Amino acid sequence: MIMRRGGAVSALSTLLLLSAGLPARAADDPVADTVAPVVNDFGIPSGTLVGLNPYFTSTVSDNVGVVRVEVWHGRVRLADSGTGAWETVNFKPDLGGIREAGPVDLVIRAHDAAGNVGTATTTVIIDRDLPTATITPAFGTVVPALPLTIELTDIPSDILEISMDAPEPIGTTWRTSGPWTFKWNARKGMTPPVFTLRDVNDNISTITTGYFVDADVPQVTSVAPAWNALVRGTRIYSTITATDRAGVEKAQLNGSAVDTVAPWTGSIPAGADGAKTLTWTVTDRLGNFKRFNWPVIVDNTKPKLSVTKAPKNKAKVTGTVKVTAAASDKNGVARVELLINGKVVAKDVKAAYTFSINTKKYGKTIKFQLRAYDKAGNVTTSPTRTWKR
What we know:
Number of strands: 35
Number of domains: 4
Mean pLDDT: 91
Pfam families: Big_3_2 (PF12245), Big_7 (PF17957)
Signal peptide: 1-26
CATH architecture of the largest domain: Sandwich
Strand order of the largest sheet: 4-10-9-6-7
Helix content: under 10%
Oligomer: single chain
InterPro entries: Ig-like_bact, Ig-like_fold
Strand content: over 45%
CATH topology of the largest domain: Immunoglobulin-like
Protein name: Ig-like domain-containing protein
CATH class of the largest domain: Mainly Beta
Radius of gyration: 51 Å
Domain Ig-like: 364-386
């Protein structure tokens, strides 16, 4: 019996008083969850060499259920499953921000609804080397609008696959082993292909080709002789200049040898008088070519010339003597020249051709001639007349 001043309290009453603040738990009251989730399989064995974006599957379990799974490195969360009911989770975290060298610890944290957290740690070695390759033709090459073979060399030994992404109808082409050659039907205006390289650690890099498809023919900038020019002689000589983005490789005048050095020249027999067509073919280094015709006029006929007024041969002359001439040519007379004692002393370019000769300037014996040129350069010279003063 427990005694106190003022009366006695029974043991039963005392027990009831002590337990008054602790009500009994009903049979259907919930039991607090204190069990942490378990990471059954991290998905990456310790010591594994991984790429910058490793793909793996983790398995987790819990007596009630896992609601979220995360991947951490130190204080940085690398991946998060989001809220759900999880037993297996696929991850592809970005490890590019991890700077320390050597082995790296990754931690999985599995959360249940009660706030319990289960963890697991694995140690990985990060492969930071992105796959590389040498591409032929090189980046930015000007290529023809023809089927093109592209080759990748200097491929790392841990390469898993290489793909070429090109416009339709080719689309994407994959290779998982060498030789690493790809075909591309190059067309003007097409987007050049892009290559994606993936190694065994899922490191991925891209190589852009930057090719320029040149379907343009060379542009001729000048031709000699001029358009419809008069030419004379036994052969016609022609010279051209041209430009091209890929460079001019050669040019050929039809009937002449190929010329590979600028400015490009050629010659062909002139043949009979009359219209003649020069046919040039200019080819760039990609095989694009331009063929064009260039007209000229062959004129090997001398102009007609006659002295219409002048002292006769062996005549005696004094003072100023006037002479006139008539000249004609089917393609036009360029000029008539006056020669005294073998030297040109005057020219006239308009019919009728008239000259005044001051005989006092030329001594006792004067040798007189006229000489006519046509527009092709053909020349006719009158017989010499000798005058006495």
